[in-house]
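Hi there. Long-time user, first ticket. I'm pasting a complex I've been working with (about 219 residues overall). I'd like to know whether the download I got is complete or cut off, because the file seemed smaller than I expected. Thanks.
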Amino acid sequence: AQRVTQPEKLLSVFKGAPVELKCNYSYSGSPELFWYVQYSRQRLQLLLRHISRESIKGFTADLNKGETSFHLKKPFAQEEDSAMYYCASRGYGQNFVFGPGTRLSVLP
Amino acid sequence: NAGVTQTPKFRVLKTGQSMTLLCAQDMNHEYMYWYRQDPGMGLRLIHYSVGEGTTAKGEVPDGYNVSRLKKQNFLLGLESAAPSQTSVYFCATTGSSYEQYFGPGTRLTVT
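Hi, the file is complete. Here it is re-exported in full:
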């Protein structure tokens, strides 16, 4: 069965510091992985997906099949990055599995 | 172009009452999903649909029923609400790109 874990419930960093939000997955096949973000009082929205290899709002994520990880990184955090971040995977069919989420707080 | 909408936005039920949550989309997407969001649990899939007239169970389907009579609508029903169903419910759709588009959520409290 698919499973996505995010070990940190809350991550606090200072503005300008690097950020890494961890995500690990378990899936026997080749998963498709995503990061979604939920800003305060807004709906969830896609931040990035591993197959596009884009950098969105300065965030990047690399799929590491050996470590089954898809960590989200940003070199210099901004206060507007404060939000709830969810890692998700799409495995067989149209079934998506989300991690428990990490709340990022960027301090001034 | 409203995207994905949900009604109602808020609802308070008493234990044993029933209600239906409506999700509507104007994106012509085939796939629709209902999730519940609970603190520390993330989003958990309740039911989903891969097309008009089809439904399938997700991770936490017990106590819920769904119907997809029209492509643009996906209904989530609670026949006999329980306090454990207090949650925020999100509807989502997916097109060919597999990006999920979410509704604004429905906050349900069962007393």
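A couple of notes from our side: Chain A touches chain B at residues 6, 9, 32, 34, 36, 43-46, 49, 86, 88, 90, 93-101 (CB under 8 Å). Residues 15 and 78 of chain A are 5 Å apart (CA to CA).
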